[in-house]
Write a structure and sequence with these properties.
Layout lengths: L1 H44 E5 L14 E5 L13 E4 L10 E7 L4 E5 L2 E4 L2 E2 L20 E2 L4 E5 L17 E2 L3 E9 L2 E3 L10
């Protein structure tokens, strides 16, 4: 009889141990799943890149580390003056382009005597310290943007390869990686950098 009681107690202990092990295994698998999900969510939503060249000075200098918000334009496209990160169509580069949106889909764009005209009206810039444009490039003649196209310029207007030149051209929504969101060192919100005081 005593042996029989001992067996029951032993079985109970084994069941408790199995239950505890199952609970620990479930907790471990749940933790791994959360970590993997968080990793992929972060990977899909933000990305770190570096500003190439001097085309966005003085707002963003060459080599500045920035965080790109890849979810910004899922529902709608960029607004005028957003700083965007995009890939060059048909080209494979080890870097992204970083430029400011000037012309929006369906608008007409032209650069005359160093000033940008949108739909025939001179554009009131939101960014301070912009130099007068010396080279109009493709924008010397008025043209209309397609429904998925954006006209982009670098803030360093005379040292920027942008939509004025055929090798960049107008940027389609498909090419846009996301919105240039933050600088890391020093920490800044890019959309608030180098703006005119009355903006």
């Amino acid at each position: 009889m005593a042996g029989y009681d001992f067996d029951l107690s032993d079985n109970r202990n084994k069941r408790k141990k199995k239950k505890k092990l199952r609970g620990l295994l479930f907790l471990f698998l749940e933790t791994v799943a959360v970590i993997v999900l968080a990793f992929f969510l972060v990977k899909l939503s933000i990305e770190r890149t570096v500003v190439p060249g001097t085309s966005m000075e003085p707002t963003l200098t060459e080599g500045t580390s920035i965080i790109v918000n890849k979810l910004s334009y899922l529902r709608k496209g960029p607004d005028r003056f957003d700083v965007i990160v995009f890939e060059q169509a048909g080209e494979e580069h080890s870097y992204y382009h970083v430029k400011r949106v000037i012309g929006l889909p369906g608008e007409t764009v032209q650069i005359v005597n160093g000033s940008v005209y949108i739909n025939g009206t001179i554009l009131k810039e939101s960014v301070k310290d912009l130099p007068q444009i010396h080279l109009s490039g493709l924008a010397a003649e008025e043209f209309t943007l397609d429904e998925d196209e954006y006209f982009v310029l670098g803030d360093n207007r005379n040292k920027s390869e942008d939509s004025r030149f055929a090798n960049i051209g107008n940027v389609t929504k498909e090419q846009i990686v996301g919105k240039a969101w933050l600088t890391l060192d020093p920490f800044n919100i890019i959309s608030q950098m180098n703006l005119e005081k009355n903006q």
